[in-house]
Design goal:
807 residues, alpha+beta, Beta-lactamase, five-stranded mixed beta sheet, five-stranded antiparallel beta sheet, 24 helices
C-alpha cells in the first residue's frame, strides 16, 4: 500500500513538474522596450484637507535617457553589483538559496529580498508588481531564459537604465545628471556609491530628504562591499569614505507645501511600498489647511532675511496642529524649500534639536503630578548641584539665569512664567529625571531615550527633540491632558476609488486634567510673566487667552516658541542647519515676531475659547506648598486683637503668620539625608541671615485667642419701618435701624429688598428710603426687607422683616 502511495506521488510530481517545464519552455521572452519614456498613467495625487487643493501630482513622463554600457562608469556597475547582487556574474539568473532564505525570513515577519539583478530587471520592465506565486514563477523562468540569450554586461546596462532613483527619476543617466550635473560616464567612485545606495528605498535615501545620515551609512556599506569583493583597494575605500560630495539643487516645481508632501510620500511608501504608491493612482487627502499653510509660509519668508542679517539665523520652521484631534494643519520645513545654498529641502520640523527652556513645562507638569502646586516655593539662589564639588566650585554644575540675577524665594508659577533656570533645575530634581522623561514621552516626545543619558540640565533643554513632536506634545496641555498623536492623512483611496485608510481619532489621557489646566494657567498668566516680557508684550493677545513658552539654548544655536489656545497649537524654530550659533539674543527677539504674525491669522477664524480654570488650593496644604516660604509652621491671627484667630474671626480679618524658620524645600520634605540637601540648604540659610531672618521659636506664637469676635458680641438692633404716601400718590418706605445693645460702636448697615442689594448707610442715624415702584414691587405684595449691621470690629447681625406694600 505504501509503495502505491509513493508511486502516485512520484507520478504527480513528474506530471506537474513536466507541465511547469513545458509551460516555461514555451514562455516567450517579451521584447524589452526601455528606449522610450514610460507614462505614469495612474499617478498619486496629494490634496489638502478639502480634497480640492492639489498639493502634488506625479503625473507626467518619467525622466530617463537610455545609454549604452560603455557610457556608464565602471564604478557604478561594480557598486551596484556589490550591494544588489554580489554573485551576479556567477549565477544563471536566480539564486535559489537566497530565495529560500528570503521566503522563510518574510514568513517570520521580516523583510528580505532574494531577487537577482536579472529578476529585478524582469519585474520592473516586463511584469506587474503583484505579489502572486504565478508572477514570481514567471519572473524566475524569464530571468533564466534571458540569461541564456543575453550577456551579463547587457543585462546590467538594461538594469541601470531601468532602476528608479526616486520620484520621476529613472535610470543612471538621469540620476547622474539630476544629482551631480554630469553623465554617468563621469561618475566618481564616491558618486557611484551614493547612486548604488539609493534604489533600495529611493524616497528614504533621497539626498533631498531628511535621512542624510542613513544615506551616508548605506553609501559606506556599498564601499565596504566593494572592498570585500576586491572591486576597490583599501586606499580607495578610506579616501572615498571621507570624500565630500555635493548634490545639485532639487528641481521639483509644481508642488505646494513641499516639506509636508515629501514627508507624506515617505510615510505612504513605508506603508504600501514605493511601486504601489507610484503606480496605483492613489488619491491622498491630507490634514493640511492650505489657507493656513500659505499664511505660515508667508510669515517664515517675511522674517527670514532680517533674521539672517540681524541674528545670523539662516533657517526657520513652523508647525500648527489642532490639539482636539492631532491633525497637522501646517508644516513649513525651511525658509525656502528650493534654496539649495541653505539646504532648503531639509525639513527642520523633523530634525532633532535642543529645545532650551521650551522643555520646562513637561518637568513642571510632573512636579504638579507629584503634589506640588503652582504656588510651591523654591529658592532662586546660586546653587552647586554636583555632589562631588564644593559649594563655591566654578567648574561643576552651578547653572545661572538668563540675566545672571538671583531672586530668592520664587513660586513655581513665577519661575516657569519667567523661565528662571535655577528653580527649574530644583523642580526637575523634585519631579525626578526618569519620571519627567517618561511623562514627556507619553505626551509625544519620542526622541528622549534612557534617563541615564541625561542629567539635571535636561530641564534647560539638554535633550534633543523635533519641532513636530514638541508642538504635538504641547497640544496635550491645550487639550486638558488628552493626547491625540500627530496625523497627516485624512483618507487614502486607490485608483479604483476604494478607501484604503481613513482618519480615526486615537485619544489617550496622559496627563490629569488639573495638571494641564495649571500649566496652561501659568503659561497664559500675563502678570506672572511680566518681569520677563513686560506689559503688553509680543506674546500677549488682549482679546484671547494664549499660553506661550519660549526657549533659547545656552549657546544660542536654537530659538523656540510654542503657543496655544484650546483649539490650535503653533510651534516655531529659528537657527542654522549646521548648528552654528546665532547672535546672543533671546528667543523673544529672534523667533517670536515670526510666530506672532502667523498666530494672529490662525486664531481669526477659530472659536475664541478660554482654558478651564484650575481648582483652588486646599487650605490644609503645608505652607511651603501654598507659597508661604518663611517657615513650615503657620498660624492665623485676628488682625484687630493680634491674638489667635478663632472660628468666629471674619475671613477678612484673618491673617496667616509663619513661625520664621527659613529652609530649603528639601528640609520641609524631610529629606535631610538627601545628597543635595546641604547644597540647597546652605545658600538658603545664608540668604536668610543676610536678610535678617533668624529662627523664631514656638514662644513667638500667641497663646490667647481672639476676644473681640464672638456671636454674643454681635450688635443687637431693632428695625423700624414706616410707609408714607407722597404728594403724587406714590408710596415711600422709610427704614431706620436702632441699636439696642452693642459692645462696639455700629459702623455700617447694608439694606436688601427681596435679596436685591439697595445700598449701605455708614453713619448714624442708619436709615434708608425705599421706593417700591423703583425696585419692582407692586401694591399689595409681600416683600422681604433684610438689614445686616456691622460694628467697628466686623461683628455682624442680620435681621429680616416682612413688609406689605400698600393695600
Amino acid at each position: 500500500m505504501l509503495k502505491k502511495i509513493l508511486l502516485i506521488i512520484i507520478i504527480l510530481i513528474l506530471v506537474v513538474g513536466g507541465g511547469v517545464l513545458l509551460w516555461a519552455a514555451n514562455l516567450k521572452l517579451p521584447v524589452f522596450d526601455i528606449t522610450g519614456n514610460r507614462l505614469v498613467a495612474e499617478s498619486t495625487k496629494i490634496y489638502d484637507r478639502t480634497g480640492e487643493v492639489l498639493l502634488y501630482s506625479a503625473e507626467g513622463k518619467i525622466k530617463r535617457r537610455v545609454v549604452s554600457s560603455d557610457q556608464i562608469s565602471r564604478y557604478l556597475k561594480n557598486a551596484t553589483v556589490a550591494i544588489e547582487d554580489d554573485q551576479f556574474y556567477q549565477h544563471n539568473g536566480v539564486k535559489l538559496g537566497a530565495m529560500i532564505r528570503a521566503f522563510f525570513a518574510n514568513l517570520a515577519g521580516g523583510h528580505q529580498g532574494g531577487s537577482t539583478i536579472t529578476q529585478q530587471l524582469i519585474k520592473n520592465s516586463l511584469l506587474t508588481q503583484d505579489r502572486t506565486i504565478s508572477r514570481k514563477v514567471k519572473e524566475i523562468f524569464l530571468a533564466m531564459k534571458l540569461e541564456r540569450v543575453v550577456g551579463k554586461d547587457e543585462i546590467l546596462a538594461w538594469y541601470l537604465n531601468e532602476v528608479p532613483y526616486g520620484g520621476l527619476i529613472y535610470g543612471a543617466d538621469e540620476a547622474s545628471r539630476t544629482f551631480f550635473g554630469h553623465s554617468p560616464e563621469e561618475l566618481t567612485l564616491a558618486e557611484a556609491a551614493y547612486l548604488a545606495a539609493i534604489p533600495n528605498a529611493p524616497t528614504y535615501y533621497s539626498p533631498y530628504g531628511n535621512n542624510l545620515e542613513a544615506l551616508e551609512e548605506r553609501k559606506n556599506l556599498v564601499l565596504g562591499r566593494m572592498l570585500a569583493l576586491n572591486f576597490i583597494t583599501e586606499e580607495e575605500y578610506t579616501e572615498t569614505k571621507n570624500t565630500e560630495v555635493k548634490f545639485q539643487p532639487r528641481a521639483d516645481a509644481n508642488i505646494r507645501a513641499p516639506h509636508f508632501v515629501m514627508w507624506v510620500l515617505g510615510e505612504l511608501e513605508k506603508k504600501y511600498g514605493q511601486e504601489t504608491v507610484r503606480n496605483r493612482g492613489f488619491k491622498v487627502v491630507t490634514t493640511l489647511d492650505w489657507k493656513l499653510q500659505e499664511a505660515a509660509e508667508a510669515a517664515v519668508a517675511a522674517y527670514s532675511e532680517s533674521n539672517k542679517t540681524n541674528f545670523n539665523a539662516s533657517n526657520a520652521g513652523m508647525v500648527a496642529i489642532d490639539p482636539t484631534n492631532g491633525q497637522i494643519l501646517t508644516m513649513v520645513g525651511s525658509r525656502d524649500y528650493f534654496d539649495s545654498a541653505n539646504e532648503g529641502n531639509f525639513n527642520v520640523t523633523l530634525a532633532h534639536r535642543q529645545p532650551g527652556s521650551a522643555f520646562k513645562p513637561f518637568v513642571y507638569a510632573e512636579a504638579i503630578n507629584k503634589g506640588f502646586t503652582s504656588e510651591t516655593v523654591v529658592f532662586d539662589l546660586p546653587t552647586q548641584f554636583d555632589t562631588g564639588c564644593t559649594i563655591n566650585a566654578s567648574h561643576c554644575y552651578a547653572p545661572s539665569n538668563y540675566d545672571n540675577k538671583f531672586r530668592g524665594p520664587m513660586t513655581l508659577r513665577s519661575a516657569l512664567a519667567q523661565s528662571i533656570n535655577v528653580p527649574s533645575v530644583k523642580v526637575l530634581y523634585l519631579a525626578g529625571i526618569t519620571d519627567s522623561i517618561q511623562l514627556a514621552r507619553q505626551m509625544g516626545i519620542q526622541e528622549l531615550s534612557n534617563s541615564s543619558q541625561y542629567g539635571l540640565s535636561l530641564v534647560l533643554g539638554g535633550g534633543e527633540v523635533s519641532l513636530l513632536d514638541m508642538t504635538s506634545a504641547y497640544g496635550v496641555f491645550a487639550n486638558d491632558g488628552v493626547r491625540y498623536p500627530a496625523q497627516n492623512i485624512l483618507q487614502v483611496e486607490n485608483g479604483q476609488g476604494n478607501v484604503l485608510e481613513s482618519f480615526e481619532t486615537r485619544e489617550q489621557r496622559v496627563l490629569p486634567a488639573e495638571t494641564a489646566r495649571v500649566i496652561s494657567d501659568i503659561l497664559s498668566d500675563d502678570v506672572a510673566r511680566m518681569p520677563l516680557f513686560g506689559a503688553n508684550s509680543i506674546i500677549s493677545f488682549p482679546n484671547h487667552q494664549v499660553a506661550v513658552k519660549t526657549g533659547t539654548t545656552n549657546d544660542y544655536r536654537d530659538a523656540w516658541v510654542l503657543g496655544y489656545t484650546p483649539n490650535i497649537v503653533v510651534g516655531a524654530w529659528v537657527g542654522n542647519n549646521d548648528n552654528s550659533p546665532m547672535q546672543k539674543k533671546v528667543a523673544g527677539l529672534i523667533v517670536t515676531p515670526m510666530w506672532r504674525r502667523f498666530f494672529e491669522k490662525a486664531i481669526v477664524d477659530r472659536p475664541n475659547q478660554n482654558f478651564a480654570t484650575p481648582e483652588p488650593l486646599p487650605d490644609d496644604l503645608p505652607p511651603y506648598k501654598r507659597g508661604v516660604w518663611e517657615g513650615g509652621q503657620s498660624y492665623f491671627i485676628d488682625k484687630i486683637s493680634g491674638k489667635l484667630a478663632t472660628e468666629y474671626t471674619p475671613p477678612s480679618l484673618r491673617e496667616e503668620k509663619t513661625l520664621k524658620q527659613v529652609h530649603s524645600i528639601l528640609y520641609w520634605l524631610g529629606r535631610q539625608n538627601d545628597p543635595q540637601f546641604n547644597l540647597w540648604e546652605t545658600p538658603v540659610r545664608n540668604w536668610a541671615a543676610g536678610h535678617g531672618l533668624f529662627d523664631e521659636t514656638g514662644g513667638s506664637i500667641p497663646t490667647e485667642t481672639d476676644d473681640v469676635h464672638h456671636p454674643e458680641f454681635a450688635p443687637k438692633i431693632n428695625v423700624a419701618v414706616s410707609q408714607l404716601p407722597t404728594t403724587q400718590g406714590l408710596l415711600e418706605i422709610n427704614v431706620e435701624v436702632i441699636v439696642r445693645e452693642a459692645k462696639f460702636p455700629l459702623k455700617q448697615v447694608d439694606f436688601f429688598w427681596n435679596d436685591h442689594f439697595l445700598g449701605s448707610s455708614r453713619q448714624a442715624p442708619f436709615r434708608w428710603l425705599i421706593k417700591p415702584q423703583d425696585v419692582g414691587s407692586a401694591s399689595g405684595e409681600t416683600n422681604d426687607l433684610r438689614v445686616v449691621a456691622y460694628d467697628t470690629v466686623s461683628n455682624q447681625t442680620t435681621q429680616t422683616t416682612t413688609v406689605q406694600t400698600g393695600n
